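Quick one, T. Sequence first:
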Amino acid sequence: MKQKRLLVSGILAVGFALAGTQANAQQLIIKGMYGMKAGTMAPPGLYAGMFGDFTWADELKTPNGDTIHGPKLNEEIFGPLVMYVSNFKILDANYAAVVGIPFANFRLDLPRLHDFSGSTGIALSQLYVIPFSLGWHIKDPLPLSPGGADIIFHYAFYAPTGRYTVLHTPNGPTTDPTNTSLGMWCNELAARLTAFFDKDKAWHGSAALFYDINSKKQDLNWTTGNPFTFMGGLGRDYGGSDSLFSGWVGVTGYGQWQVTSTTGADAPLAMRENKTTIYGVGPEFTTLKGALTIRYFWEYGGKFSTQGPGLYVQFAMPLPF
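Structure tokens:
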């Protein structure tokens, strides 16, 4: 019963990875794409869903963390995704795969607040694929986790689909600010954990670690530095297993640190000389037996980044298969 209520946390949390439009979206991974039950894989089956991501950045954070206020930058993304969880097991773990097709109004290559969304229109963004994911359900009690734990390891990649144009200016080549693609491949490795703090698995905490490896941008001598990202959540289930309006509620958050330098003669000097840091925290509410999840974040502690709140909504359902 409990497992059936987890289907969104294992499916459409993945949808956040498609967004990549959080305020300092020099990176493709989106901060906050996972929260509570980040390490729990859905039961075997075929699933389909939609997600929506909305951010409203109105602060530009300097490399020293000082704040410059400016016009609000509204970013939007949405799209479908499909996930398949197999009964086939590797090392006693279920195998799963995900494909997502996001659409966006634009993608940020560097921190700015100027809003081009009124003239760009929605277009395809970067295809997101998890071709290999393994999920374990550990039922035996563990230290600090009497209800057991769930663990997921995955490899993902982002393909450079979508609108991408290089502009040739008097100051040299650069990316078009209305692009919906960052024009680069990205490989991602992730480890995710959900720990259950009581035998009924009502109370739980999660932690997820991600390392993304960016390639050089197409047609430019510019490689964005790699980020290390933490995401997690803490909360409790509510409602009976037979109640439609059951789910979980709690607090979720993230931190992201750019750990390697941006390189290449075409990358802006400020990006080559500085690295991005950002944090976010907010509530998470999941209902409809895990089918609908809503997360809201307030960002803080930014350095060389834009900063502002964000809203994430996701919905998923199993398909007959």
